[in-house]
Design goal:
This protein is an all-alpha fold. It is built from four helices and no strands. The protein has a domain of 55 residues. The longest helix is centred in the first third of the chain and has 14 residues.
Length: 80
């Protein structure tokens, strides 16, 4: 009988990340970048790993925030 590999459940999903970031941005008045970093710190997740979860509307909001704060140039194609 073959031994089953244990499945590892991710500590946070894309949808959960989006919801938590929106809550921190609107409730605690954090920026999107600060909210993502705060979640990384609390969940003990490497920010480089978190980048894989940032997509769709959250990525667009993060890019818009970075452009408005002159963190990235407006003519830059994408953040990642």
């Amino acid at each position: 009988m073959a031994k089953k590999e244990p499945t590892i459940k991710p500590s946070i999903t894309r949808e959960d990340l989006r919801i938590r970031v929106d809550q921190l941005v609107h409730k605690d008045k954090m920026t999107y970048a600060e909210a993502i970093c705060d979640i990384c710190e609390k969940q003990q997740i490497d920010p480089a790993d978190m980048a894989r979860l940032v997509n769709g509307p959250l990525k667009i909001k993060l890019e818009a925030e970075a452009k408005s704060r002159n963190i990235i140039k407006s003519n830059t194609a994408t953040l990642f």
